[in-house]
Amino acid sequence: MLAQTVRFLTAPFRLIPWYVWLVTGLVLAWLGRNILLIIATIIAFHPIPVPPIFQGEPETIAEARAQDLRHFHHVRRNERSMDDAMKARFDAAVEALETEAADLTDAEFQLALARIQAIIDNGHSNGSATRMVASFPRLPIRTTWMDGELRVMRALPEQQALLGAELTHIGGVPAAEAMMRFRDAFGGIDASFVTYAPLFLDTPDYLAAVGISDTTLRLRFNDGRVEEVSLSPVEPVEGANRYYSGDLILPNWRETDDWLSVRPAADPLYLQHAARGYWFEAVPEMDAVYLNLARNYDDESGENLADFVMRAGDEIAAMAPSVIIVDQRLNGGGDLTITEPLMVRLGDIVGPEGRIYMLTSGNTFSAGIVNLAMAKEAAPGQTRLVGEPIGDRLQFWAEGWWFSLPNSGFRARYSTGFYDLQNGCEGLFICPWGSLHIFPVIVDDLDIDIPAPMNWDAYIAGRDPAMEAILAFESG
User: Which of 391, 396, 444, 443 is nearest to 418 (CA)?
Assistant: First the structure.
């Protein structure tokens, strides 16, 4: 009986060849390793903050704010960029806010939280500006900062006549000054800040929080007229899309269908497939290929980014262009590992005599910046940056997690993985593991070589100053 049992149990090992078992074992080991690596990566770089349990529904504003501040401490616990002095400032600011939180308006409380986050002074470790304004009534216009001007880029139908006007003052305060009153609520550099700061200028509660209670707008129209208008705020719409102000150069990006957009007289290349996150086409008059890379994650086209990267590399190489133009002016980031195979290949595609032009703006952030560094490191003598300064420093902390406070809804953020694009990164629990096969990426700088800011006159005429600058450089 024992022999029969042993024979039955060992039958698979006699019937299935040894090499099948070997391959199966290796596959299981590989899967197990990767599962463990994923778990370890989440623990190391994406610790998820657990919301307070058993705290009950708050009965007063003071209790609600206290609950939020207890949960807000996850920023302090998990943010890895903070030194001791920064932690002391952070703790003191939280303690000060605890004493006055119950007396603040909702906007004042969220702005105070954002100011505490800004102590970290890291572009990734800010509160979410789009979330901060989402629950408040807002004026029926949306503006964008464009080469030193605030332009009305969206309006509800009743305010259609305001589209394209320059917003010069709010309540008698110059618009640029009003915007900078929010500067201390966001870490990072100005180039990124101006891409979302206009969100607060159409939100009366936040204007009041920085001392602007009069929301009368002074507008300068394209025919030279100057008018003052008073607009009634509109209640938020549940489920509306949320966009940074810097995104609004794309006319199809609207919060809801009833919003009207400024429409340029023509569609330059960057607007011709605005619904796509990545695409390319030939520019024969320049012996060039234009590659639009507006995001580092999958769009809704049905072709994932990884497949696009492989296809684009092969098809662009077959075109044999002498110039490649990579437009990342709206690339706010994503997964930098997906685009690495294409970025490091650009120099080989154009050859030693070819040129690579990388179009940038303050919207170019996170993985978009790393894309620039990867291309420039691989082909330093061929790569030039065109447009406006990028949205972050070359040393920054990313990864981490977003989380919402239970009562105010404030979207807090902490960062856990370090990137240093000038010196490299060292440290197993400092540098993100998912990028170890790519880093270090080291460049001297990512400064603009050919300045070409987007300005209103060019935008409304349907021209692209960056493409014009490249054509002039190529011709010169």
Answer: 396
Let me know if the fold of 131-261 is the same as that of 269-394+443-475.
no
Mean pLDDT, residues 385-397 taken together: 98
Q: Is domain 269-394+443-475 given the CATH code 3.40.50.300 in the classification?
A: no
Single pTM value for the model: 0.90
Quote the pLDDT of residue 44. Answer: 66
Q: Provide the CATH number for the domain formed by 131-261 in this structure.
A: 2.30.42.10
3-state secondary structure the chain: CHHHHHHHHHHHHHHCCHHHHHHHHHHHHHHHHHHHHHHHHHHHHCCCCCCCCCCCCCCCHHHHHHHHHHHHHHHHHHCCCCCHHHHHHHHHHHHHHHHHHHHCCHHHHHHHHHHHHHCCCCCCCCCCHHHHHHCCCECCEEEEEECCEEEEEEECHHHHHHCCCEEEEECCEEHHHHHHCCHHHCCCCHHHHCCCHHHHHHCHHHHHHCCCCCCCEEEECCCCCEEEECCCCECCCCCCCCCCHHHHHCCCCCCCCCCEECCCCCCCHHHCCCCCCEEEEEEHHHCEEEEEECCECCCCCCCCHHHHHHHHHHHHHHHCCCEEEEECCCCCCECHHHHHHHHCCHHHHHCCCCEEEEEECCCCCCHHHHHHHHHHHHCCCCEEEEECCCCCCCEEEECCEEEECCCCCCEEEECCEEEECCCCCCCCCCCCHHHCCCCCCCCCCCCCCEECCCCHHHHHHCCCHHHHHHHHHHHC
- Token pair, residue 325, equals 């133009």
Q: Which residues contact 167 (CB under 8 A, 6 or more apart)?
A: 143, 150, 151, 152, 175, 201, 217, 218, 219
282-334 pLDDT, tens digit each: 999 999 999 999 999 999 999 999 999 999 999 999 999 999 999 999 999 99
What residues contact residue 407 under an 8 Å CB cut-off, 6+ apart?
Answer: 58, 64, 65, 67, 68
Strand pairing report for 323-327 and 355-360 = parallel
Burial class of residue 144 (count of CB atoms within 10 Å of its CB; 0-12, 13-18, 19+): buried
Contacts of 123 (CB under 8 A, 6+ apart): 187, 188, 189, 192, 365, 391, 392, 393, 396
- Domain extents for the chain? 16-45, 131-261, 269-394+443-475
**Predicted confidence (pLDDT) at residue 100 exceeds the cutoff of 90:** yes
